[in-house]
Request: fold
Amino acid sequence: MNVSSLPLSPFEKFFASLIDRTMDDYTNKELAPLAHFTEKDSKWILEVDLPMVNKDGIEINLTDTHIVIKARLEKTYCVSKRDCITEFNFFKKIILLPLGIDKEKISAKFNNGILSIYMPKIATGKNIQIE
Amino acid sequence: MISKTDDLKPKKLEKIPKSSSILFVGIPGPGLIGILSLNYVIHALDMEIIGEIEHPDLSNIIFIENGELYGPARIYKKNNTYAVISDVPIDYALAEGFSDSVIDFSKKNKIDMIVVLSGIHAAERNLANLKTYGLVTNEKLDEVLYQNEIPKFLSGMIAGPDATILTKLKSSPIPTIVLYTECNFFFPDPEAAINSINTISKILKIEIDIAEFKKQIDFLRLQSRQLMEETLTVLNPEKIKPAVSAPQIYK
Reply:
């Protein structure tokens, strides 16, 4: 179903009016999801807001320095700006990884449209004796 | 910076209502709870726009509907219920002037109670058990909380522009309740906003059908991403530490 084909109520019109303040990539037709890092003692938690997405439609890719998240929308999301309609089918976000994490132990969960990626900190190293 | 609060005057004010009245205030904040819930209530109650808050710092955005221009901070009314809603975040510089304007409007319109709608970070957000807490500036309003089964916000910390607004309202003669709904601080949280709508419904003692709102939850999360990002810039959560300890439940 095409979301924008539905008639907009005044309530929806207000939120539709926010699209002019967009952060999305119109050239590559990719929506930019909101993301947030939280630092805990033993790990970093990266949360990414992915509404209208199924777990099976999410790809997470690690590079040396970044994490790349791509997610397919369950429905095409259309944005109409004046006479131009842009169709979006994906979210995409490339995020710089924190330093000192154990890449082999990164894990992820997806719940209620929020992707949580757990990045444990490297906790082993050289022992220091107390004098 | 605001140098003169005289710059912030509501315009096109209607005549003063005869009986008791309530003013709801919703601005972009944690989880966008205030703006999501109040926008829906304005729509559900079919409230009419009666004016707007004018200030040079609010003049960089104009909304256009049916060819008419509207500023980002508007005033709505239906019977004795009023609503002030801002579609742009209120930063530290604007918070004091914005509050003065709300207080000024309330005095002129003989508002009996101001209800500010906001959100509070829930570290382990459980959708089935989200709560809306009430913080009052006047002990007389404890009864309103009790009657409407709203747990009282007993301890914690409020920081950011919300604190500035609350400080101003606290020193005003108009009793104020601030409703803090548990939410995801960093992302638009329409599911949590349902709690806020239900609490408004209790206070007004009217049924507000949330069926339409529920259908649009994903749409709202998508559409309000940019506003959430702008709001976080204003709230500066890295400094204000959203993980405020959970308030005790009022008995």
